[in-house]
Amino acid sequence: MQLSTIAGVITAACLLLSSQSLLASDTKPGVTIYATGGTIAGKAESDTATTGYKAGAIGVQDLVSAVPAIANVATVQSEQIANTASGNINQAILLKLSKAINQQLKNPDTHGAVVTHGTDTLEETAFFLDLTVKSDKPVVVVGAMRPATAISADGPMNLLEAVTLAASPRADKRGVMVLLNDRIGSAFYTTKTNATALDTFKANEQGYLGAFYAGKPYFFYQPALPENKPSFDVSDKTTLPKVDILYSYQDQDSDFLSTAIEHGAKGIVIAGSGNGATSSGVKEEIRKAMAKGIPVVLSTRTGNGYVTAKTKEDGIGSGVYNPQKARILLSLALADGDNMEKIRSYFEE
Asked: I need a labelling partner for 315 at 20 to 30 A (CA). Which of 103, 205, 276, 300 fits?
């Protein structure tokens, strides 16, 4: 072969490799957005209305189209799982969502998932996914405190940051995250702390995982899992056992616990005062339920703090879990058929 021919072949090969390298560098991470409705998809009659709007009025395609900058950070596909206020999210939607995310994250072209959600129960869905999604890839749950039609709506920026976070390799192995108001929180610990403020999602004891600065996510720590974090497989589940939350207060009727059991509750969570405290009459009902094999978890209505272990007949201390998260964990444990001591270990160890 002549030298000129060889040189031509080498030149062509170099051009091909160069074009392939350029193509690879232009390839953006794949992110799937699962929409469930909420304020982020809300619509009001006035652009100054931040309450009294209709949640879940806008579809996921319109949400994505309203933020064209998303195309600069990820290749996005989307699915409308539901379109409703977050108070209407039920176990059927949760199971559908968890199964869809688990399946999609097996796709090598998908780097992460984003869930748009109403903020009222966002922490419950995020916590459920944190216990049931088995992947090192990032899952980000995002919402908004102002509807899409409001002046200075926070949804578009929140959505852009959520997709950016799900596309980031630095977000791997951090479990499910909650993203609002530039703050990155662990779904395991984060809770809603204010009815209307933009900076409502916090983990008072544990803090944030990181934050967004100038459009980029920055983490404060290396990836780490919460202590004693359980995991559940819901791939074959179509329903979950009913668990009720009961609120503790002065002069309380002790029959409320037995009534909940009569109406089908397989487990009970009590939002107790202080360190999971209840009245003497309620304690008697708790002992009866525990003796029947119905677990009663004592959490706290204070909004923060660790509820310590209880004696075997007096119930189960919720540990780090607030009432709404304790309910989800207890329901998943019951769905797995775990016995009382195994259930106790989730909360008290």
From this structure: 205
Q: Which CATH number fits domain 243-348: 3.20.20.370, 3.30.450.20, 3.40.50.40, 1.10.1040.10?
A: 3.40.50.40
Among 36, 39, 164, 200, the one annotated catalytic: 39
Residue 27 neighbours by CB under 8 Å, 6+ apart: 75
Q: Which CATH code, of 3.40.50.1170, 3.40.50.300, 3.30.110.170, 3.30.450.20, is assigned to 28-219?
A: 3.40.50.1170
pLDDT of 327 strictly over 60: yes
Instruction: Give the separation between CA 331 and CA 268, rounded to whole angstroms.
Output: 9
Model pTM score: 0.91
- Tokens matching residue 339: 């016995």
Supply the pLDDT for residue 51.
79
| CA–CA separation, 49 and 43 (whole Å) | 9
Cα–Cα distance measured from residue 75 to residue 275, given in angstroms and rounded to the nearest whole number: 47
39 in active site: yes
